[in-house]
Write a structure and sequence with these properties.
The chain has 10 helices and no strands. It is mainly α. It has 3 domains: 111 residues, no CATH class; 54 residues, no CATH class; 66 residues. The longest helix has 31 residues. The radius of gyration is 21 Å and the shape is globular.
Length: 251
């Protein structure tokens, strides 16, 4: 958050350029623009992963049935606001074509806005990426442990270290996979693959919720959402996956 706030702060002086940039922006109906929006949304989905990980610590939350949904929704709202502000600052400080060619757009925005080398932003970005990877490894290893504990994966992955009480084997497996992908995969390819898999998972989760709501009586003491919520989530997730797949195949 500190890195994003710094970028917003140093680039906010150019916000008065919004009307000019808006007037020069191509129409959504222009050739390739709608396709670009879909591709951008697909990649942007990668930036929103992690909120679902909160449910893995539900047993550590006071009144989880009340506080956990609120925490998830507030975190999503805050992140969306930050991403919107960063995007706005980006397009008013750096030409869009130049942004598209940059391998480090946030560092470029900082450099363009301040005239200084983006050492601070680069350092924060590195720490943020490492922190995000560690969180995902912790979450994924617990999922692997839980599946192995139910007999869905080899039993060795359900073993817990006697001293640390953590699933060492599952953690080592996930860390090895993350290292392999990081060393041999391009960042855009990994982001697309992650978004693709997570959208499929979200589609299945919404489908499962729809089935539970349709076939089973709702237990007491939980948030009860209308059946159109999981139905809409399933349709939206599948639609984005299908459109992205078609773009990849035809492009």
């Amino acid at each position: 958050m500190a890195g994003l706030l710094i970028v917003i702060w140093v680039g906010s002086s150019a916000v008065e350029q919004v009307p000019r940039v808006w007037s020069e922006a191509p129409s959504l109906l222009s050739p390739g623009v709608a396709e670009g929006v879909v591709v951008g949304a697909f990649l942007a989905f990668y930036a929103f992963i992690g909120f679902e990980d909160m449910v893995n610590v539900a047993e550590e939350v006071r009144e989880p049935e009340r506080n956990l949904p609120r925490a998830i929704l507030r975190a999503i709202a805050l992140s969306t606001l930050l991403y919107f502000a960063v995007s706005l600052v980006a397009v008013v400080n750096v030409p869009i074509a130049q942004l598209g060619q940059s391998d480090a757009p946030l560092a470029l925005i900082y450099q363009q806005a301040t005239g200084r080398e983006p050492v601070v932003i680069t350092t924060i970005g590195m720490l943020a990426v490492i922190n995000g990877a560690l969180i995902q490894m912790i979450m994924a290893s617990r999922v692997i442990y839980g599946m192995a504990n139910r007999g869905w994966l080899p039993g060795v992955l359900s073993r817990v270290n006697s001293r640390t009480r953590t699933p060492i084997a599952a953690t080592v497996l996930i860390a090895t996979l993350v290292l392999a992908f990081a060393l041999w995969g391009a960042i855009e390819t990994l982001a697309k693959a992650t978004s693709f898999l997570l959208l499929l998972v979200f589609a299945l989760a919404n489908l499962a919720l729809w089935r539970l709501k349709y076939w089973q009586q709702q237990p007491a003491g939980i948030i009860n959402v209308p059946i159109w919520v999981p139905a809409s989530g399933f349709v939206a997730s599948v639609a984005v996956v299908v459109i992205q797949a078609l773009i990849e195949l035809l492009g």
